Amino acid sequence: MYRLITALTLGLTPAMAQAAGVRVLTTGAMKAVVLKLVPQFEKETGHKAIIANDIAGGVTRRVEGGVAVDLVVTTPAGLNALAGKGKVVGNSRVNVARVGIGVVVKEGAPAPDIGSVDAFKRALLAAKSVAYIDPAAGGSSGIYLSGLFDKLGIAAEIKPKAKLKQGGYVAELIANGDAELGLHQISEILPVKGVKLVGPLPAEIQNYTTCAAAIATDAKQPDAAQTLIKLLTGPAGDSVLKARGMERPPA
User: Fold this and answer.
1) What contacts 209, CB < 8 A, 6 or more positions away?
2) Which of 18, 104, 235, 242 lies in the 20 to 30 Å Cα band around 181?
3) Stated pTM of the model
4) How confident is the model at residue 174 (pLDDT cuts 50, 70, 90)?
């Protein structure tokens, strides 16, 4: 029964849970990167990689709740909190990448001017609806954007037309026609079909989310998890990160 509950918690089938493998729980920002490196990882180690993802707050809640996992990929703050509770090995943590927030519209739609802070504000105010991650769900981009709207003095105008997503890809709301303009981490915009990345937020108001990896304290396959960390942080990961709008974090 415990194994079945664990499988359902990770979003896996019981058959997948029985397979010998390395369980990776990642934030959405790094999901596409991890998936791209899975074939090389499986070839090098002979282990099957079983990937699940959530927003940063969801990753923390799952690991705190005791989900079976070998490698955790989330924010440094999230990993520090988990290390403090004995859920991940603190000295195994490595910063892997960082990603900024971008603006997305439906493919074929006119691209708004976002080349300056004032232009960005005008684009938000002109849009009929604005989609982003619900800050209450614990997503890092949503939390930042909520504060940014306050700082820019447009929170009251954005609130009635906000389309909040609890997790997953905000760009899906744009592709489906549920919102006109979206804001999300660039690495979570690029994988979605039917949309167009307008560009990153203006430099003065850009916010980068750093993604880090650490081995779970109760990992069943710690050596294999370490191999995946090496792939993420090594040459194999460089081109993958770049293709997904990410970069290495400053030293």
Assistant:
1) 29, 75, 98, 99, 100, 140, 141, 185
2) 242
3) 0.78
4) very high
Domains of the chain (ranges; CATH) run: 2-97+211-243 (3.40.190.10), 101-205 (3.40.190.10)
Largest Cα–Cα distance in the chain? Answer: 56
54-77 pLDDT, tens per residue?
Answer: 989 999 999 999 999 999 999 999
Residues 6+ apart with CB under 8 A from 113: 119, 122, 123
Distance CA 218, CA 71 (A): 10
- For 99-114, letters b (16+ CB in 10 Å) and e give bbbbbbbbeeeeebeb
**How confident is residue 20, by pLDDT bands cut at 50, 70 and 90?**
low
Q: Which two tokens stand for residue 152?
A: 């820019």
Query: Mean pLDDT, to the nearest integer, of 77-86?
Result: 96
